[in-house]
Amino acid sequence: MKLFLDFIPCKECNTMMNELCSPEMIFADPKKRSDESAKFLRHLTYNHNEVVQAVLDNLPKQKRDQEFDFFK
Ligand SMILES: [Zn+2]
């Protein structure tokens, strides 16, 4: 699932996103990568409520779209 979020990343977000996209992280073992993603998600949960809200708003909508396709 891919979500496009419209929010303003803070300095900490930028640092963590850069780390997550860095070659060292892309080739790191899955455990380390999932730890880093979890850290980022935790930061979003506590510091960027609007992002969490956007994700929650998005989920039911996607589900409805899928169901609609099914009945076409
Ligand atoms: Zn942030």
How is this structure best summarized?
The chain is mainly alpha-helical and 72 residues long. It has one domain. It has four helices and no strands.
Provide structural commentary.
The two termini are 22 Å apart. Helices cover 78% and strands 0% of the residues. It contains four helices and no strands. The mean pLDDT is 82. 1% of the residues are buried. With 72 residues, the protein is mainly α. Helix 1 (11-21) packs antiparallel against helix 3 (30-47). It has one domain (11-22, 33-71). The chain has helices at 11-21, 23-26, 30-47, 49-71. It is globular. The structure holds zinc ion. Residues 9-10, 12-13, 43, 47-48 line the site of zinc ion. Zinc ion (ZN) binds at residues 9-10, 12-13, 43, 47-48.
Helix/strand layout:
Elements: H1 11-21, H2 23-26, H3 30-47, H4 49-71
Helix pairs in contact: 1-3
The structure holds zinc ion.
Key phrases:
72 residues; 4 helices; 78% helix; binds zinc ion
